[in-house]
Design a protein that fits this description.
By secondary structure, the protein is α/β, with parallel strands linked by helices. It is built from 4 helices and 5 strands, in the order H-E-H-H-E-H-E-E-E.
């Protein structure tokens, strides 16, 4: 078996990747070294902002400033989870017509209601609580 064959046959299901014909690419951006702000983002989703990688940023304030730049640089929709305190603060700092928030908290553009754990995940209903422009 060649190295190329091993790459094509991942041992773990979460290590899969293929090259297809689509014109979009979904990336989990890593903020560890600040380069995520250089991505040419058509749209972004931020799930949380935590005090991580402070050895690079030097302070949580610098990390937050970098996330603000990342959100403001996105050309398309900006989606932020307001259940996380850091991300909620980010959404307030980046308020705009194309900002969409989600979560269980009141005030989310899309509010998760009636979450119900199931054997394969979580089932829930969604309630749009604000107009999306």
């Amino acid at each position: 078996m060649t190295l190329r064959d091993r790459w094509r046959r991942p041992r773990r299901p979460w290590h899969r990747g293929t090259s297809g014909q689509a014109k979009i690419l979904v990336v989990e951006a890593d903020e560890s070294d600040g380069t995520f702000v250089e991505l040419d983002s058509a749209g972004i989703i931020v799930t949380n902002v935590e005090a991580d990688h402070l050895e690079y940023y030097g302070s949580f304030d610098k990390l937050e400033e970098t996330f603000v730049r990342f959100v403001r640089n996105a050309a398309g929709p900006k989606v932020i989870c307001i259940d996380d305190p850091g991300a909620a603060k980010l959404s307030a700092a980046c308020a705009s017509d194309d900002l969409i928030t989600y979560g269980t908290r009141p005030g989310a553009t899309w509010r998760i209601i009636e979450p119900l754990p199931t054997p394969v995940g979580i089932s829930f209903s969604g309630l749009r609580t604000a107009t999306i422009r």
